[in-house]
Amino acid sequence: MSFIEAKDLVHEYIMRDEEGNVEGVQVALDHLDLNVEQGQFIAVLGHNGSGKSTFAKHLNALLVPSEGTLYVGGMDVSDESLTYDIRQTAGMVFQNPDNQIIASVIQEDVGFGPENIGVPTEDIWARVEKSLKAVGMWAYREHSPNKLSGGQKQRVAIAGVMAMEPKCIILDEPTAMLDPDGRKDVLAAVHELNKTKGVTIILITHYMEEVVDADYVYVMDKGKVVMEGNPTGIFSQVETLKEHHLDVPQITMLAHELKQEGLPLKDGILTREELIQEIDRICH
Amino acid sequence: MSLILDNISHIYSQGDAYEKKALDGVSLKIEDGEFIGIIGHTGSGKSTLIQHLNGLLKATEGNIYFNGQDIYDKDYDLRDLRMQVGMVFQYPEHQLFDETVFKDVCFGPRNQGLPEKDVTLRAYEALKNVGLDEKYYDVSPFELSGGQKRRAAIAGVIAMKPQVLVLDEPTAGLDPQGRDEILDMIAENHQRYGNTVILVSHSMEDVAKYVDRIIVMDDGRVRFDGEPKEVFRHYKELEEIGLAAPQVTYLMHDLKDAGYAVSCDATTVEEAKDEIMKMLGSR
Ligand SMILES: Nc1ncnc2c1ncn2[C@@H]1O[C@H](COP(=O)(O)OP(=O)(O)OP(=O)(O)O)[C@@H](O)[C@H]1O
Ligand SMILES: Nc1ncnc2c1ncn2[C@@H]1O[C@H](COP(=O)(O)OP(=O)(O)O)[C@@H](O)[C@H]1O
Ligand SMILES: [Mg+2]
Ligand SMILES: [Mg+2]
User: Fold this and answer.
1) Which of A10, A257, B5, B6 is the most core-located residue (most Cβ within 10 A)?
2) Pocket test for ligand 1, best of A11, A17, A34, A53 (most atoms within 8 A of CB)
3) What pLDDT is attached to residue B115?
4) Do B276 and A258 touch (CB under 8 A)?
5) Are the Cβ atoms of A47 and B42 closer than 8 angstroms?
6) Which of B144, B181, B200, B273 to mutate to test the interface with A (most CBs of A within 10 A)?
7) Regarding the domain with residue range A4-231, which homologous superfamily does it belong to in the CATH classification?
8) Tell me: the pLDDT tens digits for A234-282?
9) Is the pLDDT of residue B92 over 80?
10) Would you call A181 and B145 a contact, using CB atoms and an 8 Å cutoff?
11) Which domain holds residue B117?
């Protein structure tokens, strides 16, 4: 069995009026099938309203399936007796850096999670140290979160999730509010966790550049997986991506347009280095 | 007709331990009909700056003149200023409050005193412009996805057709097509009506593509102010203050370093393509 296994997963939001009568139903996940192996770095793309956040919320049992099944680390998310264990296995980081830090001192904030799940005090501090170091925020442990930049706040939020020692972290547009530096820092921290600690990463994003280094990409549309593959494979399909309201990294777009001008470039160029190599090849 | 900021400083929590000088002697002249981008690292003062433009924040020091009038004058009608300077805030969820999306978008134009028929028309037009499907018009804004909320918040402001449109990181959370469509729509309206647009953004690519003038904020001050290609020539200094140049600008520099005879001024895909084709053509 895969680490994450969604089969025929359906989620319907039921909208009710003030009296509680059903006004409408919004199908947000529509028989979604998707697998993730432990230790993978997965990116999830999809237009606004395609169901990404809804799926993310199932992964740590904030929502339960209306139909179908979802297993996380072998646990059925529909089984309420497992909710606690599931949340410990899969941690979430959200978009807005200002809504995620509650304590007035950073190290206390990171300690909250483990404390809540009953980790002994001396272990808590060891975990706080390990997580803050992993995201490069150890030097700030005694600071107040108010003074941090958005990127720093997000890294503290990631440390807070890490301190629970989850096998998997889901990040729902963690960089949407950040400046270029903050984006780079957060991405680097997440890749580091994946490489050195083997944490499974599910990254939801609207920035195509952030997907380039993922192991595998899922594209969602109307609650279903409509494309999947490695980044090169996905970004070779410029026109299909556009049909799903998506895009390619700027360098890939430039290569695509140069190709349409008649340059014999290969498909799915993702980086500056690759494009320059191709131009070298043409010129020599 | 213009917006003039004369030596503006803003200090938060003046006098207590959290005192923070968020703006430090900012002077700017914004002409009618300009399309301006504001960039800067988090905390550089962008949001503080633009909230002065509609009088939401009052400068600790300095003056602001809108169409020749001092907005801090006792007799100045700040309510009128807020009708003319429309603002899309950084966190759209703070901007949505009505029962349904449609009612929410009607709020602004109704507040402007437009007849009910026009209010409705404006709301339809705006919602169409931001690409929000009709099936969401009657739902609560809180039942929308993140990007859909953002679209609804933008619709609420463009429905007022303000003379000056200020957008604080409006594309955060939008999918790529939504981002392009909404910025294209804003640029088109700007072309058609000649309104002033001020776009705060963390996307160097978007700023390069749409605006005519970039203002770079750093630590409460204006660090650079000029055309995109001028400003992005300072990419090394921009990196020092947490920013960057567009991806394609870096590519042009790499090509030049690799010995190709190219100019490094390209800041958009179009410009980079033209420059590379020109270079290859002349070989
Ligand atoms: N609380 C809710 N009540 C009712 N419908 C909802 C609710 N939350 C989301 N939806 C609807 O479910 C669908 C999927 O929403 P979801 O938030 O999963 O999208 P998303 O892919 O995360 O979008 P975005 O890129 O904008 O964040 C949308 O049609 C949305 O309007
Ligand atoms: N309401 C506030 N109270 C106190 N300080 C604030 C407030 N809003 C912003 N600041 C501070 O002012 C500075 C500029 O913030 P802001 O204008 O939000 O920057 P930006 O929009 O460029 O990220 C930062 O140091 C920030 O912490
Ligand atoms: Mg979402
Ligand atoms: Mg801001």
Assistant:
1) B5
2) A53
3) 96
4) yes
5) no
6) B273
7) P-loop containing nucleotide triphosphate hydrolases (3.40.50.300)
8) 999 999 999 999 999 999 999 999 999 999 999 889 999 999 999 999 9
9) no
10) no
11) 95-161
Q: How far apart are the CA of B43 and the centre of ligand 4, in A?
A: 7
Cα–Cα distance for residue pair A224/B274, rounded to 1 Å: 39
pLDDT of residue A50: 97
Residues B68 and B127 in one domain: no
C-beta separation of A189 from A182 below 8 A: no
Between A96 and B141, residue with greater pLDDT: B141
**How far is the alpha carbon of B117 from chain A, nearest alpha carbon, in Å?**
27
At B218-266, the pLDDT tens digits run 999 999 999 999 999 999 999 999 899 999 999 999 999 999 999 999 9
3-state helix/strand/coil string of B221-257? EEEEEECHHHHHCCHHHHHHCCCCCCHHHHHHHHHHH
Task: Quote ipTM for the complex.
Answer: 0.90
Instruction: Tell me, yes or no, whether B252 lies in a domain.
Output: no
Best probe residue, ligand 1, of B136, B144, B150, B175 (max atoms within 8 Å of C-beta): B144
> Average pLDDT, whole number, for chain B?
93
| Residue B157 sits in the same domain as residue B195 | no
Domain identity same for B123 and B138: yes
Q: Do B148 and B176 belong together in one domain? A: no
The pLDDT of residue A127: 92
Q: What is the pLDDT of residue A18?
A: 80
DSSP element (H, E) containing A245: none
Stated pTM of the model? 0.92
Q: What is the whole-number distance in angstroms between the Cα of residue B146 and the centre of ligand 3?
A: 5
Q: Which among B140, B161, B182 is the end of a domain?
A: B161
Domain map (residue ranges) of chain A:
4-231
Tokens of residue A274, six digits: 């690759």
> CA dihedral in degrees (B237, B242, B247, B253; nearest 10)?
20
**How many domains does chain B fold into?**
2
Q: Which residues of A touch B260 (CB under 8 A)?
A: 279
pLDDT, mean of residues A127-148: 90
The alpha carbon of B147 and the centre of ligand 1 are apart by a number of angstroms equal to 9
Same domain, B28 and B60: yes
A272–B251 CB contact, under 8 Å: yes
Q: Cβ(B46) to ligand 2 under 6 A?
A: yes
